[in-house]
Amino acid sequence: MNRKASAVWQGSGKDGNGQITTQSGVLSNNPYGFKTRFENEPGTNPEELIAAAHAGCFTMALAFQLQGAGFTADELRTEAVVTLEKDGEGFTITQSALTLTAKIPGIDRQKFDELAGIAEKNCPVSKVLNAKISLNATLSA
């Protein structure tokens, strides 16, 4: 299976701008640039897209872990915060912090923690990130 996206850039690094498009069309010529990446101007940026990919990947991986163990979640809600830090002349993604709130009937805390840990380590996005990954998981009633 292959998935693809493309980026087009015009101009210099700080004053230029670009557009990101995904194969599915969910993103179509979405703007990004210095201001969307470093100054919170409306638009997207690579770190936001990585955070979305990690949150989605981990959450789906956990749903499959739960299914395999005989559980079905009422809700899994995950936020991923990706940290970009200055590294010499450039930048490095140093961390992806996952925060999960889950409502899963009939599961105990030990089994929940076990399955969430497996999902964290084995989702494909976790495997590709060369960064510290943390998980703060809450099981709600």
TrEMBL record:
BP terms from Gene Ontology: response to oxidative stress
Region (Disordered): 1-32
Example of a GO MF term: peroxidase activity
One Pfam assignment: OsmC
Signal peptide interval: none
Polar residues biased stretches: 18-31
PANTHER family: OSMOTICALLY INDUCIBLE FAMILY PROTEIN
NCBIfam families according to UniProt: osmo_induc_OsmC
Name of the protein described by the UniProt record: OsmC family peroxiredoxin
Organism of this sequence: Methylobacterium nonmethylotrophicum
